[in-house]
Write a structure and sequence with these properties.
Layout: H1 2-10, E1 18-22, H2 24-35, E2 42-46, H3 55-68, E3 73-78, H4 85-95, E4 102-106, H5 114-127
Parallel strand pairs: 1-2, 2-3, 3-4
Helix pairs in contact: 2-3, 3-4
Amino acid sequence: MRWLGYIRVNFNVASFTLIEGFSTAANKALALFANYPQHYQGAIIISPALELADTAWHDKINQSLKQNLANRALYLSLGNFAGNRLYFTALQKYVSSASNHSVFEDLSQKNYLSTAVLGFNNAVDHLFADLQIYRL
Protein backbone atom coordinates (compact mmCIF):
# COMPACT_ATOMS: atom_id res chain seq x y z
CA MET A 1 0.00 0.00 0.00
CA ARG A 2 3.01 2.28 -0.37
CA TRP A 3 1.44 3.73 -3.49
CA LEU A 4 -1.26 5.42 -1.40
CA GLY A 5 1.41 7.41 0.41
CA TYR A 6 3.03 8.37 -2.88
CA ILE A 7 -0.29 9.57 -4.30
CA ARG A 8 -1.08 11.63 -1.19
CA VAL A 9 2.34 13.30 -1.22
CA ASN A 10 2.54 14.00 -4.95
CA PHE A 11 -1.04 14.81 -5.88
CA ASN A 12 -3.66 17.16 -4.49
CA VAL A 13 -6.10 14.60 -3.09
CA ALA A 14 -8.60 14.55 -0.25
CA SER A 15 -7.36 13.72 3.22
CA PHE A 16 -9.48 10.59 3.27
CA THR A 17 -9.65 7.52 1.08
CA LEU A 18 -12.76 5.59 0.04
CA ILE A 19 -12.82 2.16 -1.51
CA GLU A 20 -15.71 0.94 -3.66
CA GLY A 21 -16.68 -2.43 -5.02
CA PHE A 22 -19.61 -4.11 -6.75
CA SER A 23 -20.53 -7.81 -6.79
CA THR A 24 -17.47 -10.09 -6.58
CA ALA A 25 -15.13 -7.07 -6.54
CA ALA A 26 -17.08 -5.86 -3.49
CA ASN A 27 -15.80 -8.86 -1.52
CA LYS A 28 -12.22 -7.74 -2.16
CA ALA A 29 -13.06 -4.12 -1.36
CA LEU A 30 -14.74 -5.17 1.89
CA ALA A 31 -11.71 -7.25 2.88
CA LEU A 32 -9.34 -4.36 2.14
CA PHE A 33 -11.52 -1.95 4.11
CA ALA A 34 -11.76 -4.34 7.06
CA ASN A 35 -8.09 -5.30 7.14
CA TYR A 36 -6.44 -1.94 6.40
CA PRO A 37 -8.19 0.63 8.62
CA GLN A 38 -5.22 2.98 8.39
CA HIS A 39 -5.65 3.26 4.61
CA TYR A 40 -9.41 3.50 4.11
CA GLN A 41 -11.71 5.82 6.02
CA GLY A 42 -14.81 4.82 4.07
CA ALA A 43 -16.18 2.03 1.91
CA ILE A 44 -19.00 1.69 -0.57
CA ILE A 45 -19.79 -2.00 -0.87
CA ILE A 46 -22.58 -2.69 -3.37
CA SER A 47 -24.23 -6.11 -3.78
CA PRO A 48 -21.24 -8.12 -2.59
CA ALA A 49 -21.11 -11.82 -3.45
CA LEU A 50 -20.96 -12.79 0.20
CA GLU A 51 -22.15 -16.34 -0.41
CA LEU A 52 -18.97 -17.08 -2.41
CA ALA A 53 -16.72 -16.63 0.63
CA ASP A 54 -16.03 -19.32 3.20
CA THR A 55 -16.77 -19.21 6.92
CA ALA A 56 -13.19 -18.27 7.86
CA TRP A 57 -13.36 -15.23 5.56
CA HIS A 58 -16.66 -14.09 7.10
CA ASP A 59 -15.36 -14.56 10.64
CA LYS A 60 -12.22 -12.53 9.88
CA ILE A 61 -14.20 -9.72 8.24
CA ASN A 62 -16.68 -9.58 11.12
CA GLN A 63 -13.91 -9.43 13.73
CA SER A 64 -11.85 -6.86 11.83
CA LEU A 65 -14.81 -4.56 11.27
CA LYS A 66 -16.02 -4.82 14.83
CA GLN A 67 -12.54 -3.90 16.11
CA ASN A 68 -11.79 -0.98 13.80
CA LEU A 69 -14.98 0.47 12.35
CA ALA A 70 -15.25 3.35 14.82
CA ASN A 71 -14.85 6.75 13.17
CA ARG A 72 -15.00 5.16 9.72
CA ALA A 73 -17.93 5.04 7.30
CA LEU A 74 -19.38 1.93 5.67
CA TYR A 75 -22.20 1.63 3.16
CA LEU A 76 -23.17 -1.95 2.32
CA SER A 77 -26.10 -2.97 0.17
CA LEU A 78 -27.74 -6.33 -0.35
CA GLY A 79 -28.29 -7.37 -3.95
CA ASN A 80 -30.88 -9.83 -5.19
CA PHE A 81 -28.99 -13.11 -4.88
CA ALA A 82 -30.92 -15.05 -2.24
CA GLY A 83 -27.83 -16.74 -0.79
CA ASN A 84 -26.37 -13.42 0.34
CA ARG A 85 -29.18 -12.42 2.72
CA LEU A 86 -28.02 -14.63 5.60
CA TYR A 87 -24.47 -13.22 5.47
CA PHE A 88 -25.66 -9.64 4.98
CA THR A 89 -27.94 -9.87 8.02
CA ALA A 90 -25.22 -11.48 10.13
CA LEU A 91 -22.69 -8.80 9.17
CA GLN A 92 -25.19 -6.04 9.85
CA LYS A 93 -26.02 -7.45 13.27
CA TYR A 94 -22.40 -8.11 14.15
CA VAL A 95 -21.00 -4.67 13.39
CA SER A 96 -24.01 -2.44 14.09
CA SER A 97 -22.72 -1.63 17.56
CA ALA A 98 -19.24 -0.77 16.26
CA SER A 99 -20.15 2.34 14.28
CA ASN A 100 -22.90 4.87 13.88
CA HIS A 101 -21.47 5.77 10.47
CA SER A 102 -22.61 2.56 8.82
CA VAL A 103 -25.58 2.07 6.54
CA PHE A 104 -26.92 -1.28 5.45
CA GLU A 105 -29.46 -1.09 2.64
CA ASP A 106 -31.61 -3.84 1.16
CA LEU A 107 -31.71 -3.42 -2.62
CA SER A 108 -32.73 -7.03 -3.23
CA GLN A 109 -35.99 -6.02 -4.93
CA LYS A 110 -34.10 -4.02 -7.56
CA ASN A 111 -32.61 -5.25 -10.82
CA TYR A 112 -29.10 -6.58 -10.16
CA LEU A 113 -27.41 -4.27 -12.64
CA SER A 114 -29.27 -1.19 -11.45
CA THR A 115 -28.05 -1.72 -7.88
CA ALA A 116 -24.58 -0.52 -8.89
CA VAL A 117 -25.97 2.92 -9.76
CA LEU A 118 -28.61 3.08 -7.03
CA GLY A 119 -26.25 1.86 -4.33
CA PHE A 120 -23.46 4.24 -5.32
CA ASN A 121 -25.82 7.23 -5.37
CA ASN A 122 -27.33 6.29 -2.00
CA ALA A 123 -23.88 5.70 -0.51
CA VAL A 124 -22.53 9.06 -1.64
CA ASP A 125 -25.64 10.80 -0.33
CA HIS A 126 -25.11 9.17 3.05
CA LEU A 127 -21.33 9.44 3.31
CA PHE A 128 -21.26 13.12 2.36
CA ALA A 129 -24.55 14.20 3.95
CA ASP A 130 -22.90 16.44 6.53
CA LEU A 131 -20.34 17.95 4.14
CA GLN A 132 -20.85 21.65 3.61
CA ILE A 133 -19.82 23.19 0.30
CA TYR A 134 -19.21 26.90 0.47
CA ARG A 135 -19.10 29.24 -2.49
CA LEU A 136 -16.41 31.86 -2.53
